[in-house]
């Protein structure tokens, strides 16, 4: 039996990984940061190195992972805009526009009388928006097979029909029997964003899926391990974008009952899983106990702090303005400049080779 063949970056090259956390409307924060990253890189990198084109996020990174709202950004930045999968459909600015101007189509309330018996939001308008944004000109809906520039994408979700975690991806040659490339991008996003109590589970092929943030809100650590299997590079550069973390007290919940904890427990679960990934990367070697040779990696955590405890669905003007302010302030910080300088100093145009997969 012949071995499958994958198109991967050569062993001598760096592998660039982008990871985006879940966080509902707070996805506006990483969207703005990525928009600024695109702008700064294109302003400061010489034209010859860029190949005479405007570089987009999908041109820079080899793997892009996103959980929940992060899946909207990850797939929005990597979906192809042409039949040959050579040009990204959207720049980062379009994702900013999505969160600023289309959030009312994402959070579409059901009748208040039904609120305690059903999820908070109906998915109809959200699903319609996704189909509109992730369709070709001929109205054919894009699938995970329509990702640009051979970028590898990874989207966590949870299958409640089989009670197991799921990692939607576009690299079946590395994934064994699971092939998700025929899954539509709108379906994958709906599955990864189906936060309990907010949205109903998403049915795909007779299975029901919920938000990947229930167990992996920050997919950076898993994306790093997947990248090691795929690229076998000499250095891995990991950019992990958060959606904002609130450091204030939640002591008002100390005597809370089921109704008091119903909504906060979702945010707390997501925050704690994000912190777990952060802790893994604090060690010099994020693969302790391994007998393999230590690989070189550089981890860039972009972790803005929220000024208030912003709910996942707070799409008020006050909330949007606050999130924009947080992102714009963070862009001035050293963490962002360090990432920009790493790309400017070390990034090279993508080159690929064919390699048999063992």
TrEMBL record:
Residue intervals of the PNPLA domain: 18-224
Name of a matching Pfam family: Patatin
Catalytic residue positions: 68, 211
Molecular-function GO terms, alphabetical: calcium-independent phospholipase A2 activity
GO cellular component: membrane
Motif (GXGXXG): 22-27
Keyword Magnesium found: no
Residue positions of motif DGA/G: 211-213
Protein name: Patatin
Residue ranges annotated as motif GXSXG: 66-70
Example GO BP: lipid catabolic process
PROSITE patterns with a match to the protein in the record: PNPLA (PS51635)
Alphabetical UniProt keywords: Hydrolase, Lipid degradation, Lipid metabolism
Species name: Rhizophagus clarus
SUPFAM superfamilies found in the cross-reference section: FabD/lysophospholipase-like
InterPro entries, alphabetized: Acyl_Trfase/lysoPLipase (IPR016035), PNPLA_dom (IPR002641)
């Amino acid at each position: 039996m012949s071995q499958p063949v994958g198109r991967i970056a050569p062993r001598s090259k760096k592998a660039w990984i982008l990871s985006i956390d879940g966080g509902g409307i707070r996805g506006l924060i990483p969207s703005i940061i990525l928009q600024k990253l695109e702008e700064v890189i294109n302003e400061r990198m010489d034209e010859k190195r860029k190949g005479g084109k405007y570089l987009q996020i999908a041109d820079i990174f080899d793997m892009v992972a996103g959980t929940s709202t992060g899946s909207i950004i990850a797939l929005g930045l990597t979906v192809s805009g042409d039949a040959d999968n050579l040009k990204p459909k959207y720049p980062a600015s379009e994702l900013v526009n999505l969160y600023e101007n289309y959030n009312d189509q994402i959070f579409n309330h059901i009748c208040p009388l039904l609120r305690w018996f059903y999820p908070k939001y109906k998915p109809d308008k959200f699903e319609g928006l996704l189909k509109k944004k992730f369709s070709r000109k001929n109205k054919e809906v894009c699938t995970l097979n329509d990702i640009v520039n051979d970028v590898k994408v990874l989207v966590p979700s949870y299958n409640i029909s089989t009670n197991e975690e799921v990692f939607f991806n576009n690299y079946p040659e590395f994934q064994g029997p699971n092939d998700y490339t025929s899954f539509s991008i709108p379906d994958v996003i709906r599955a990864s964003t189906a936060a309990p109590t907010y949205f109903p589970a998403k049915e795909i092929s007779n299975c029901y899926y919920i938000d990947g943030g229930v167990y992996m809100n920050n997919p950076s650590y898993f994306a790093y391990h997947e990248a090691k299997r795929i690229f076998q590079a000499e250095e891995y550069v990991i950019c992990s974008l958060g959606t904002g973390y609130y450091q204030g007290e939640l002591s008002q919940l100390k005597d809370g009952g089921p109704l008091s904890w119903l909504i906060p427990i979702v945010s707390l679960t997501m925050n704690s899983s994000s912190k777990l990934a952060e802790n893994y990367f604090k060690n010099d070697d994020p693969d302790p106990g391994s007998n393999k040779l230590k690989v070189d990696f550089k981890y860039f955590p972009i972790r803005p702090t929220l000024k208030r405890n912003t709910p996942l669905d707070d799409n008020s003007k006050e909330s949007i303005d606050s999130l924009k302010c947080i992102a714009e302030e963070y862009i001035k910080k050293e963490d962002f400049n360090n990432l920009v300088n790493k790309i400017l100093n070390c990034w090279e145009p993508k080159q690929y080779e064919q390699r048999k997969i063992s």
